[in-house]
């Protein structure tokens, strides 16, 4: 007899609560925020500068979501003005490792992927 997976932990189930976290972690900016923090804490402006193309609004939204998920921690130093930095929580450290490996693989294989895209697009030309 086949046992059905637990719907609360089966990412293929539309009602799995993990899907929301999956969306946060693998979003365009979520993966880059987590990967950028992998090497240690960064201030907001350092994160913004590290992640080319992210607006301050999107960075702020992603940091709030990832903090709510328990993946990022916000640290405030009581200086004047206060210094705020962000770091991965232990849970975020664990989750960022495979994401970083994925980014490394994409960087390594980007030429092959671009070549495949060019070949594919050439086969879709209107004259074929």
UniProtKB/TrEMBL annotation:
InterPro entries: ArsR-like_HTH, HTH_HxlR, WH-like_DNA-bd_sf, WH_DNA-bd_sf
Keywords recorded for this protein, A-Z: DNA-binding, Transcription, Transcription regulation
Gene3D superfamilies: Winged helix-like DNA-binding domain superfamily/Winged helix DNA-binding domain (1.10.10.10)
Domain HTH hxlR-type, chain residue ranges per copy: 16-114
A Pfam family the protein falls into: HxlR
Superkingdom per UniProt: Bacteria
Protein name, UniProt field: Winged helix-turn-helix transcriptional regulator
Species whose genome carries this gene: Nonomuraea roseola
